[in-house]
Design a protein that fits this description.
This protein is of the alpha+beta class and 211 residues long. Helices cover 24% and strands 30% of the residues. The strands form three sheets. Strands 1-9-5-7 form a four-stranded antiparallel beta sheet. The chain has a three-stranded antiparallel beta sheet with strand order 4-8-6. It has a two-stranded antiparallel sheet with strand order 2-3.
């Protein structure tokens, strides 16, 4: 639920990153090749590390379009109604990029096989609660020092009726998605926005006094 202060005011200690992208989730004659997107996060690592044990919150929202199956109903098999599914994951505090990508691939295979790996206690909902429908949102809470190392988000696919039915006319069809990441801290005097905007070459408005 939004607070009045958050709606009416802006703060340097809160920043939202928005990206829109598309990719073909599966390729190959038998949909054997799983593709994904890796989004490096322009975190101000020095500032996050300086926060030490102070709490930060990262809200991740993933939205995408599916093609529903007109001939199947989804309550018997979750992979029978939607054309495909997308998932997001955040690099762990102790993982390097290679280890993170290996885990993402393993989790995608495990989910389609009906099992899941252990979940992080840093997420509010966790994987069992957030991956329903085609709009997924969850909130990660931890320290600034921990989040400084979590600098990649992966978007990866899981199968649906496109893959299960072997539809060749859907095999290389790209899918669209939007990814929103909202980072904030309640610590006073912390500027998260400016270093991120500088990395992304976002013009920063300056106020000019009127004579």
């Amino acid at each position: 639920m939004p607070s009045e202060d958050a709606v009416l005011n802006s703060a340097r200690g809160a920043v939202t990153l928005i990206t829109q992208d598309s990719f073909a989730p599966f390729s190959g004659d038998k949909y054997s090749m799983r593709n994904f997107r890796l989004h490096p996060l322009p975190w101000p690592e020095d500032i996050l590390r300086d926060l030490g044990s102070a709490e930060v919150r990262l809200r991740v929202t993933l939205s995408y379009f599916i093609e529903p199956s007109a001939s199947r109903r989804g309550w018997r098999n979750k992979y029978a109604y939607a054309s495909h599914g997308l998932r997001f994951d955040l690099q762990g505090r102790t993982e390097n990029q290679a280890e993170f990508l290996q885990r993402v691939n393993r989790e995608a295979q495990n989910e389609e096989g009906g099992s899941r790996s252990s979940e992080s206690d840093r997420w509010f909902l966790g994987e069992r609660g957030r991956h329903l429908g085609s709009l997924h949102q969850d909130e990660w809470t931890g320290t600034g020092a921990e989040l400084a190392h979590c600098n990649n988000v992966a978007i990866y696919p899981v199968g649906g009726w496109w893959k299960n039915n072997g539809r060749k006319d859907r095999r290389d069809l790209p899918v669209r998605y939007a990814l929103l990441l909202s980072l904030q801290t309640k610590e006073q005097g912390v500027d998260l926005y400016t270093p991120i905007a500088t990395q992304l070459h976002v013009p920063i408005r300056t106020s000019i006094p009127v004579a």
